[in-house]
Amino acid sequence: METQLVLPKYSKTVVLKFVFGQSDGGVRFIGQRVVVGGWVKSSRAVSKDPVTAAPDAGVHKDVTCVEILQSRFPFFRSILKVLGGAGQQIRDKLDTDLPMPPQLTGAILQVSDGSCVANLQVVVDSSLAPPGRIMPIGTCILAEGILQQPSTQGKQIIELKAEKILHIGTVDQDRYPLSKRRLPMANLRDSAHFRQRTTTVASVMRIRSALTQATHTFFQENGFLFVQVPIITSTDCEGASENFQVTTLSGKGKIENQSTADDAGGVELEVMKVSIEEKTKQVEELKRTDSNKEALAAAIQDLKKTTELVSQLEAKEKAKSGKPTSSGNKDKVSEDFFSCQTFLTVSGCLHLESYACALGKVYSFGPRFRANKIESRKSLSEAWMVELQMAFSEIEDAVDCADDFLKFICKWILENSTEDLKFLSKRIDNTIVDRLQLIATGVVEYISYTEAIEFLNEVTEKQFETKVEWGVSLSEEHESYLADEIYKKPVIMYNHPKEIKPFYTRLNDDEKTVAAFDVIVPKVGTLIRGSQNEERFNVLSTRITEMGLAKEQYEWYLDLRRHGTAKCSGFTFLFDSLVLYATGLDDVRDAVPFPRSFGKANN
Amino acid sequence: METQLVLPKYSKTVVLKFVFGQSDGGVRFIGQRVVVGGWVKSSRAVSKDPVTAAPDAGVHKDVTCVEILQSRFPFFRSILKVLGGAGQQIRDKLDTDLPMPPQLTGAILQVSDGSCVANLQVVVDSSLAPPGRIMPIGTCILAEGILQQPSTQGKQIIELKAEKILHIGTVDQDRYPLSKRRLPMANLRDSAHFRQRTTTVASVMRIRSALTQATHTFFQENGFLFVQVPIITSTDCEGASENFQVTTLSGKGKIENQSTADDAGGVELEVMKVSIEEKTKQVEELKRTDSNKEALAAAIQDLKKTTELVSQLEAKEKAKSGKPTSSGNKDKVSEDFFSCQTFLTVSGCLHLESYACALGKVYSFGPRFRANKIESRKSLSEAWMVELQMAFSEIEDAVDCADDFLKFICKWILENSTEDLKFLSKRIDNTIVDRLQLIATGVVEYISYTEAIEFLNEVTEKQFETKVEWGVSLSEEHESYLADEIYKKPVIMYNHPKEIKPFYTRLNDDEKTVAAFDVIVPKVGTLIRGSQNEERFNVLSTRITEMGLAKEQYEWYLDLRRHGTAKCSGFTFLFDSLVLYATGLDDVRDAVPFPRSFGKANN
């Protein structure tokens, strides 16, 4: 059965996922001419016997690229080392022009185009390109050739016999951070622009993309409208968050000078104070020695001036250490780009709710920001969240939706990312498929916050580091104990104390708890935080006051309660945590394309 | 034909879009019991005759809510006006408790749930709720009842006869910004949390959501992976952009004090300089008058000290006006959250390309930021962009993709947003459907930048405000002339001078132009900016130097060329401008949920 290859649009290259994705693994395409582009994942030199189209024809000697270069051109290597980066061109030229040692007749490359886990074996005769030039890990190659049965023994069922090399993107092996194979994830983090070329990170990012697609599909199938909430905001959506400020005011120079000026102020004052003492002595001396009147008058005049200056300086120093006057501050903020203080949003919930209170069911999906000065494997400064808000809906509705949503996306990944899950099961964590199935097909456990506290207080078999007490948030160890050890499935905890939830969460009739819920899953903990929102103007207004928040910031949100208030519920879904859940990774910084965390924003 | 209503999930309310979306406009549901929730768009009081289920049975007198309240309760109204906002509760109570005037027996409400353009007519007997309480525009109502044939003459083909009112969210009419109907768009901008309750803005936002959905669908159908590029970045992706800084350093107080300290520095210096003159005179006077040695020595010592202090102050003032020393600046930046200067991203292209150079075809969709201090109907500080990058692809591929993409989303909107387009054609611009069809089914015009300049230079029938010259960007008037007046269809302009395109655009063989293209469409101008990227290390490195950019910032991007470079192309799609194109709006601030522009970030 031969299928004509459908060439992908917008490129001359055939996508490997399409080739390997056929039921026969691409065997049907044997004999066809294609262009393939990708990066070398591993390579072998072919020595002695020329590579032929017949399988198992040649006896291949495994030689790595590094071995070739180091053993055969030691003199040139040492010269190039001295030349460093500038030697790149010369090195390329040498690689091209130098006659290949007679025993190297070609190279066998395992090439990935990033579309799937599998590599294509590409056989390149040395007449097309010097093996030493194309063999280093990370080399980019664009080759035209014929798909054929493999010429070597191995797991490949097809290979490309190159007939033309259209492009080579060489690698500077000394500087390329991925020259070594199987680097630990933590080391790869510093190469956020390269690590996606590893099979593991590529798999993670394909799963991340599939989860994104699943998210949009779920909400659109269920009639949600997508609303782009703002990143720059003048509202602190959760009250008292650690915010990033957005400004066009603080230029480099200004920040630096301010510091010098501050320091200098103190020094001057000390010098002047000493000066006053001396001048006082001088005046007394002039008086005592009965010197001429003019000199005395001048000295007195000078003392007076210096004293005035000192009191001016003292007042200024005092102002510095104290709080700024509100009018002065307002003036300065009014010079900023937006004429007010603005932050990176910590949550789009409030903005989104104003759309729910007009359009019904709405969702958003984007980065949210927290300037928490901690380094942790669960914390990002820029984290991706899915948020949704539904009008005419109560807490049970939001819980149902959260449950359906989780089931939907886990099922989606199981069906659409089979190869990536298989690879990550082998490489990272062999329980990921079971864990996804646990959510996709399983049931959840419901437990109220109060029940959870009572339960945890009775635990004797385990010692917790932090004490469990009604009124405080459960810590990671408690959540993990419930989800991983006791229930071994997703736990939905509800009715939290009002103090530990945002001000807009709806107050229950007991006036102590609020209509909130958390979905806690094994391995990663809290995945979803949801609530019914407070639709009663007076109760909401009181809550804002109670929590000591700056009410003027929330006037627009209170407007939603003043005019045509509706019951609303919704939730926030911690997208990055789901990537951990689905891939088996332990650190959220490995699950995000360009992680931002305390002290780290490299590019 | 009767269809059982499928109740929507996650709410008890039926979605109006589903009801009206039936081929018979919902007539099939007559007789069924439903719960409907929404906001009152207009209302009429029913007087004298009770509302009955039979059509055209009652003789209705049109009375608006405001008329009722003002004519019937003048005394209470004036009291409530005095009470202001605090009167809300009392007013609600009055509305509830006051006996209705005998002639008002109910209300007919036009209710929207935001899911579609059409309103549902809801008939509420005064025994269920006081008409004056539910009739104001913007009132939220949740009602259970039976769908029936309309009881009034009009365009409705079904209505809801309410049997139970489950919730009323009243409106404080004096303060509700939408109490007046048909407010100009510019006035609505100040109520970003409410304006989506108007039929026009709701339509625009539904179209925006549909365009988002179309975007994701196109890229996913064509094998693109979604990559979340960072918002916080230490790289200026286009070089020399007007950036927003992201910081946790600049507290309110510090900014204010800095200004005072700066000013004070100059004043002190002047005072001290005067003081030196006087002290010099004093010393000379002491010498001249042959005064005692101790007094003279003290005066000389004092002069010396003051002179030293002045030269210290002068050095400080000089540093202030000049550039800061790099070491001092570095120290301060190192205290910031990320230990380096960070900005809001102006473009995700570079980050995205590092993923293309590993995974093949990738796209992103998110806000990008520019701190341009201008107010314009085309400019936003936070604008939404679709960006894509494809490895092994050249400029022609990117142009093909841009063309297909535009056709796809315009076709999508024509097929999926029929009702909203119909409404906006009537309300805003009756050419939007033609315009969308122009792209969806039409051809584009190709013209090189050089040809365009030559052509525009020969134009005599029109006077341009700015001169056309090779080497400068075309201004809006030139683009508009080409797309709106000459070609009357999308124009793809290519091969721009290298000076007017970003540093990473690939240099053509003439070494003057680059492999860039813009898609310019009638009405909104540039919609897409694309390019093939410079894959040659040396050329890229030279371009960065030529343009005077800070090279160290781009080292990571240069790495992509050092190690396994591939030909890449892609484009940036100005999403908000497409919303203008598709809706007929003129100002981009009306096309974004929460617009951010110079001086405006209200919530």
Automatic annotation (TrEMBL), chains A, B:
Keyword flag Protein biosynthesis: yes
Enzyme Commission no: 6.1.1.22
Coiled coil: 269-316
Pfam families the UniProt entry points to: tRNA-synt_2 (PF00152)
UniProt keywords, alphabetically: Aminoacyl-tRNA synthetase, ATP-binding, Coiled coil, Ligase, Nucleotide-binding, Protein biosynthesis
Gene Ontology cellular component annotations, sorted alphabetically: mitochondrion
Domain of life: Eukaryota
Gene3D superfamilies membership: Bira Bifunctional Protein, Domain 2
MF-aspect GO terms: asparagine-tRNA ligase activity; ATP binding
GO process annotations (BP): asparaginyl-tRNA aminoacylation
Domain Aminoacyl-tRNA synthetase class II (D/K/N): 193-250, 335-596
Sequence similarity: Belongs to the class-II aminoacyl-tRNA synthetase family.
Protein name: asparagine--tRNA ligase
Species this protein is from: Olea europaea subsp. europaea
Taxonomic lineage of the native organism: Eukaryota, Viridiplantae, Streptophyta, Embryophyta, Tracheophyta
